[in-house]
Specification:
With 288 residues, the protein is an all-alpha fold. The chain has 12 helices and no strands. The longest helix is centred in the middle third of the chain and has 33 residues. The mean pLDDT is 83.
Length: 288
């Protein structure tokens, strides 16, 4: 005998209408403002500046730790006189030369490594040898080979940019899916056309990451190299500005030089690289 399941009676329940409810009720103004990343960072920065000023007043020694207001006054005076803008232009001009040359060499070396076994062995050997070597350690040799001048700084900048950029780019090339590789081969792509049309677009997140790391390494190396270079020459960029004012015990101007280094780094990171990511990898859905 087959047992039938019990039948459940059907019924319809009327829902009471919602009252005083809006679907798109806006958040309070304070909550909307606090959701802005730039505002939260600005509040955090303001808090750090207040702590700095409080610590300087508690220390009560301008030679050891000038306050934020005193540093801002020195920064504003040197901006108005044109000294700081000139130093910034000198540093950025030197940095741009070494950064571009180092990035192009890193891209060429990575392309050779992904194309041939000899290039792969060459990249592995060179990065193992030179990547752990601090770029500033090559400055004495650079001064011996190229003399006092911009060429020595460009040489150490190329070294600081090339190896992290090459490693990131090569890792990005290796991470390209086999499906894209096969699609490129099916279209008959090879050599430079294959690298340019398939590997570089697919590995762009790693390439941009390498560019950011190379920029940070180059910027730090340049300031450190200019500090050493400034000891032997009267011309230089922000590093020489910091070195000179330290010798003359203008600590507020030393802090103004350090603040200039930080501001330039934040601007490059926030404007150049963020814009590059938005118009490429984020727009293409390759990065969140």
């Amino acid at each position: 005998m087959r047992i039938q399941p019990p039948l459940r009676p059907e019924y319809q329940r009327e829902l009471a209408p919602l009252k005083d409810f809006t679907l798109n009720q806006p958040l309070p103004l304070a909550a909307r403002l606090w959701n802005q990343t730039w505002l939260r960072k600005l509040v955090l920065l303001a808090g750090l500046l207040v702590l700095w000023e409080f610590a300087a007043r508690w220390q009560n020694n301008d030679l050891m730790l000038p306050g934020f207001l005193q540093t801002f006054q020195a920064f504003r005076d040197d901006i108005a006189s044109g000294e700081l803008p000139h130093k910034m232009v000198v540093s950025l001009g030197t940095l741009l030369k070494g950064y571009v040359i180092g990035s192009l060499l890193a891209l060429a070396l990575s392309a050779l490594a992904v194309s041939t076994r000899f290039g792969r062995d060459l990249l592995g050997t060179l990065t193992s040898m030179f990547n752990p070597l601090p770029a500033i350690a090559l400055l004495p040799l650079a001064l011996l080979w190229f003399g006092l001048g911009e060429k020595s700084l460009v040489f150490v900048l190329i070294h600081s940019v090339m190896w992290p950029m090459a490693l990131n780019t090569y890792s990005g090339f290796l991470g390209v899916s086999e499906t894209l590789r096969m699609a490129g081969r099916n279209y008959g792509l090879s050599g430079f056309r294959y690298i340019n049309a398939i590997l570089i677009p697919a590995a762009l997140p790693s390439i941009i990451s390498g560019l950011k790391i190379g920029w940070a390494f180059a910027w730090r190396t340049l300031i450190a190299a200019e500090l050493v270079f400034g000891a032997s020459s009267g011309d230089g960029g922000l590093g020489w500005y910091i070195f000179q004012n330290r010798n003359e015990l203008y600590t507020d101007r030393v802090f103004a030089g350090l603040a200039s280094v930080i501001i330039i780094g934040l601007l490059v990171e926030g404007l150049v690289f963020s814009t590059l990511e938005k118009v490429t990898v984020k727009r293409w859905g390759m990065q969140r």
